[in-house]
Amino acid sequence: MNNKSNAIETIKKMNRKMVLDQVKTSDGISRTEIAQELGLSKSTVSAIVEELLGRKLIEESGKGSSTNKGGRRRKLLQFNPKSSLAVGVDVGGTKIQIAMTDLDGEILYEKKFSSQNDVKELIQLIHYSIEESELDSSHIIALGIGVPGWVQVDTGIVIEAPALKWNKRNLKEEMEPHFDYPVFINNDVNCAALGEKWLGSGEESDNLYFIAIGTGVGSAIISGGELVYGHNYQSGEIGYQLSKEDLQRKDLNTEGEFGEFEKKISGEAFRNGDRTAKDVFAEYSGHTNGSSPVVKNFFTELSLVITNSVNLLNPELVVIGGGVSESMHSMIEELNERVASLTPIKTNIKLASLGGAAGAYGAIYHAYTELEEAEEL
């Protein structure tokens, strides 16, 4: 395809997306109104509308008022989110979360299962969930899966997932023969970030930084509404950050082990006998000055890494998720104040709102966006 043909195809894609977005954001809009709002010709809009109607992404919902000249009432168009469904899966070390939504993110099914990290079992659980949901499986257009590890997103290969004992496993290739629709694989923290952006605390922001604090620590960057992957899909590995003190003590990162920063603020840092992060944070008295050394250290380390990330990325919003974050409600105000005192660059820090379901929702969102970019949605 030559450059001229490429340019024409790009313009067609842009026009199609603009028309669909215009319908999505309206309560009912006519073809003429779309043409006027977007500055497109009526013939271009009509052709795109016919395509979208044929794919059931939009539907005619009734008729508007007549024109100023008393002409025929115009047919109104509405987005049809029920036209397609997707399945999202968040694969953990011992648990699997499965969800199903329509194109608008309405949650139609959700369930958590115990798991032994077996792909055959994963396939069976997905089929079981689809059947149990009693939804029309013919409307499913994609399956998205989040995996705790290093994922080559473009190929669906899991390069390394220590919690699952998976190495260089082409999960996409293993899964797709068992389903009648494409399968998309991503990192679990990336998926959780997308989930919060789509349906959670980051819903109003296209530029956010997501930090997951659980057994380990990870992060994800969303800029301009899209994930930032880095050179080889390893961006956001903040667990490996080092301080001056780490270097002085010669506490350096070792492959296959927790990173030095990870050791300071993950769930592992709170383990002291039978005490959990929730037990430790219960001692927080509204200010770190009166808190235990463990809480003080956690607060200081987290404040610094957020400050440095804000300086580097300039996100509108920082969202903190993961299991440890569920115990942090009492300190989020002080955390905002501390970061504001450390940098002149403005941001807002919030806790995630979707809990353990964020990854499954984000896996669905990733699948939808991949299909949209490929013009299969």
From TrEMBL:
Residue span, HTH marR-type domain: 18-61
CDD domains on file: ASKHA_ATPase_ROK (cd23763)
InterPro entries linked to this entry: ATPase_NBD, HTH_MarR-typ, ROK, WH-like_DNA-bd_sf, WH_DNA-bd_sf
Gene3D superfamilies (UniProt xref): 3.30.420.40, Winged helix-like DNA-binding domain superfamily/Winged helix DNA-binding domain (1.10.10.10)
UniProt keyword Manganese, yes or no: no
Keywords of the record: Carbohydrate metabolism, Kinase, Transferase, Xylose metabolism
Gene Ontology molecular functions: DNA-binding transcription factor activity; kinase activity
Top-rank taxon, per record: Bacteria
Pfam families: MarR_2, ROK
Keyword Secreted: no
Protein's GO biological process: D-xylose metabolic process
Entry's family note: Belongs to the ROK (NagC/XylR) family.
Reported function: Transcriptional repressor of xylose-utilizing enzymes.
Protein name as annotated: Glucokinase
